């Protein structure tokens, strides 16, 4: 009877012969594709669909918010550096717990603690109290290895690019115009008041996401219970790290150092280039929309054209983005057009590089060690990012606003030949395996 009822509903909702029409066929293919998406991917995507738009509203204004709370450019960089260090240290504990006791428990508890950190950010009275909340947020992100582990565990090799694209696409659909919503709140309640509202909304939605992950996420790794201690567990994981993993971590570390020097980009655009609050929101939304439009073709390229094609294309597009950013003149008729071009190149590069990188990282690490190795993976890059952000803040305050951005671009260009050579070596085996899957 239940089967017959479902069949009747299907005939009502999708009339006979409807699939022959272009729209009907498209809807059928979408429904069929969604049916193949693993449950955990759906739950994660749903969570980001709700949470990411709220978080994205604060994106263009967080640095300005901390500035209004009394922080200098150097202070802002210091806060972010401390947060990154806290996150890197917390991932060590989170990676161990993820591989020992399973992914799910670590994931939902950490999500709840991050939500509480947003509540503290929303009531910060000065930049120091905001710094404390931000560092606590960094510690609360100890669940990231569990999140990354569940994502990698749930998807086979030849679908990772497309599933990663889906996980970015769903929140992107809602987040692409979120900065404009943030601009509306900031214009209505003032910079400080508007950002406080956004952070409080991030707290509320974060609690809802934590509950959803508790109820619906399926465990992908059976808990091991008692056994070796944390140190022995990490020593065991390191025995299974390949040379390719160390190479990719080294590249990640170098480019986190170089990239973090330009951390104050929103601050720089607002106070030095003369970009107003609405234009900051417009640039953020433009980047999100372009990135969103490219996710599906980029994800397919990662799986069909190979990791090397996508990661190389993304890296070069990112370099062009930095070039146009550096060339943007202050308070000129060319300022906004140059920043738009920079944003477009950055969005294209981000789509291809991000999906290829996350897929390659999963390719190189065995399932049972992902929590711990992902945790260790973040240590050196986080430390280098913190150092780079501090150096950038110091350069901004002491050598001039343009110097950290020019230095970051020049170092990236110098490292490009090394990066492209190593990308080719790292992706050779994986791309060969992908070609074999496509040919079978």
TrEMBL record:
InterPro entries: MFS, MFS_dom, MFS_trans_sf, Sugar_transporter_CS. PROSITE patterns: MFS, SUGAR_TRANSPORT_1. It comes from Thermofilum pendens (strain DSM 2475 / Hrk 5). One of its GO terms (cellular component) is membrane. It is found in: Membrane. One of its GO terms (molecular function) is transmembrane transporter activity. It is a multi-pass membrane protein. This is Major facilitator superfamily MFS_1. Gene3D superfamilies: MFS general substrate transporter like domains. It holds the Pfam family MFS_1. The chain crosses the membrane at residues 106-124, 197-216, 245-268, 280-297, 309-328, 334-353, 374-393, 405-426. Residues 40-431 form the Major facilitator superfamily (MFS) profile domain. Keywords: Membrane, Transmembrane, Transmembrane helix.
């Amino acid at each position: 009877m239940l089967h017959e009822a479902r069949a009747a509903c299907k005939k009502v909702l999708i009339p006979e012969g409807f699939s022959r029409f272009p729209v009907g066929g498209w809807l059928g293919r979408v429904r069929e594709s969604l049916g193949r998406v693993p449950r955990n991917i759906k739950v994660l995507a749903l969570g980001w669909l709700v949470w990411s738009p709220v978080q994205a509203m604060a994106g263009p204004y967080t640095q300005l918010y901390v500035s209004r709370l009394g922080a200098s450019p150097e202070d802002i960089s210091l806060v972010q550096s401390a947060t990154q260090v806290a996150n890197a240290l917390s991932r060590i504990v989170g990676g161990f717990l993820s591989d020992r006791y399973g992914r799910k428990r670590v994931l939902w508890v950490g999500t709840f603690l991050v939500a509480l950190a947003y509540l503290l950010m929303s009531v910060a009275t000065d930049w120091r109290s905001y710094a404390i909340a931000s560092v606590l947020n960094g510690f609360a992100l100890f669940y990231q290895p569990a999140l990354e582990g569940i994502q990698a565990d749930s998807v086979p090799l030849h679908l990772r690019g497309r599933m990663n694209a889906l996980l970015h696409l769903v929140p992107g659909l809602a987040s692409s115009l979120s900065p404009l919503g943030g601009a509306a709140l900031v214009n209505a309640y003032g910079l400080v008041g508007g950002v406080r509202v956004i952070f409080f909304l991030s707290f509320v939605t974060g609690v809802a996401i934590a509950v959803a992950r508790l109820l619906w996420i399926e465990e992908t790794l059976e808990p091991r219970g008692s056994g070796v201690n944390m140190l022995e567990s990490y020593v065991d994981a390191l025995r299974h790290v390949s040379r390719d993993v160390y190479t990719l971590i080294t590249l990640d570390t170098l480019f986190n150092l170089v990239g973090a020097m330009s951390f104050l980009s929103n601050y720089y655009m607002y106070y030095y280039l003369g970009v107003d609050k609405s234009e900051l929101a417009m640039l953020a939304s433009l980047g999100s929309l372009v990135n969103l439009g490219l996710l599906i073709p980029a994800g397919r390229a990662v799986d069909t054209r190979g990791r090397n094609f996508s990661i190389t294309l993304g890296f070069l597009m990112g370099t062009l983005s930095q070039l146009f950013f550096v060339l943007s003149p202050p308070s000129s008729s060319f300022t906004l057009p140059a920043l738009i071009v920079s944003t477009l190149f950055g969005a294209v590069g981000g789509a291809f590089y991000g999906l290829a990188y996350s897929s390659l990282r999963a390719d190189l690490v065995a399932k049972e060690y992902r929590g711990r190795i992902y945790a260790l993976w973040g240590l050196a890059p986080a430390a280098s990012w913190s150092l780079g952000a501090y150096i950038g803040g110091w350069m901004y305050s002491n050598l001039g606003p343009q110097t950290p951005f020019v230095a970051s671009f020049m170092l990236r260009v110098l490292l490009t030949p090394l990066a492209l050579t190593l990308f080719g070596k790292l992706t050779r085996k994986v791309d060969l395996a992908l070609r074999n899957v496509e040919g079978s």
